[in-house]
Amino acid sequence: MSELFHSPAELKRMAAAAALTAVPSNCRLGLGSGSTAEIFVEELAVRVRQGLQVRCCATSERTARLARSKGIEVAGLDAFEGLDLTVDGADEIDPQLNLIKGGGACHLREKVVAAFSARLIIIADDSKLVDSLGAFRIPLEVIPFALPLVLREVSGLPGCRSCLQRRSESAPVLTDEGNLVLDADFGLLTDPGSLAIRLSDVPGIVEHGLFVGMAETAFIGTQDGVRILERA
């Protein structure tokens, strides 16, 4: 192990810089949301100033504002016929590169942009690696009208320990689409794919934070350098 200790922010920056090697010139690039994705935007801006040509689509208004402030071209999803690559963070990553995302309440747009991309790359520090998903509660984006139904249906699913509305101080957390966010605790998951299907079947859930079989590669910052994980 290196004698120099890297902070979590430094590990994220190491992962972000490594992921930039996968971004070709003239790339149609999806930009994720959250603290790690914002570090990637900062690193990308340096490369853009050095001449890298990219056109980007952001997964949140916050990311879009940051990217534009750094001189990066950002357009809406309707400006593209598809994206070559999306780089995003994650709250948990299992050995199969299944993910829990949505701690920043952006998982709907994140999943849309990821699905629109030929490839999804995840960047994170090694604290996000887990043997099984589920210590982090699963975010659910829910239309306000459906809140009572979703609370009832999700709470009744096998293994659900709790399903709580996310709040910031005294106000409900709202997404960029104006929807509510719930956090569902199912404990450690033995079959995230099956739970993903069950959650998708609940009327009123616009999207959940389980990303199953979507990520292709993960760049993980560790004290010993950057690990590159590939989905089997």
Task: Explain the overall architecture.
The chain has 2 domains: 8-131 and 213-224, Rossmann fold (3-Layer(aba) Sandwich); 138-204, Alpha-Beta Plaits, CATH 3.30.70. The radius of gyration is 18 Å and the shape is globular. The strands form 4 sheets. A 6-stranded mixed beta sheet has the order 2-1-3-6-14-15, sandwiched between helices. A 4-stranded antiparallel beta sheet has the order 8-11-7-12. A 3-stranded antiparallel beta sheet has the order 4-5-13, covered by helices on one side. The mean pLDDT is 97. Helix 1 (8-19) crosses helix 2. It is built from 6 helices and 15 strands. The protein is of the alpha/beta class and 232 residues long. Helices cover 27% and strands 26% of the residues.
Strand content: 25-35%
Count up the domains. Answer: 2
CATH topology of the largest domain: Rossmann fold
Question: Main β-sheet, in a few words?
Answer: 6 strands, mixed
The shape is globular
How many helices? The count is 6
- Distance separating the two termini: 27 Å
Question: What is the level-2 CATH architecture name of the largest domain?
Answer: 3-Layer(aba) Sandwich
Category from helices, strands and their pairing: alpha/beta
Order of helices and strands: HEHEHEEEHEEHEEEEHEEEE
The low-pLDDT segments are: none
Q: What is the residue-averaged pLDDT?
A: 97
Draw up the topology in text.
Blueprint: H1 8-19, E1 27-31, H2 35-49, E2 54-58, H3 61-69, E3 85-88, E4 92-93, E5 99-100, H4 107-115, E6 120-125, E7 138-142, H5 147-155, E8 162-165, E9 167-168, E10 171-172, E11 180-185, H6 192-200, E12 205-208, E13 210-211, E14 217-222, E15 225-230
Parallel strand pairs: 1-2, 1-3, 3-6, 6-14
Antiparallel strand pairs: 4-5, 5-13, 7-11, 7-12, 8-11, 9-10, 14-15
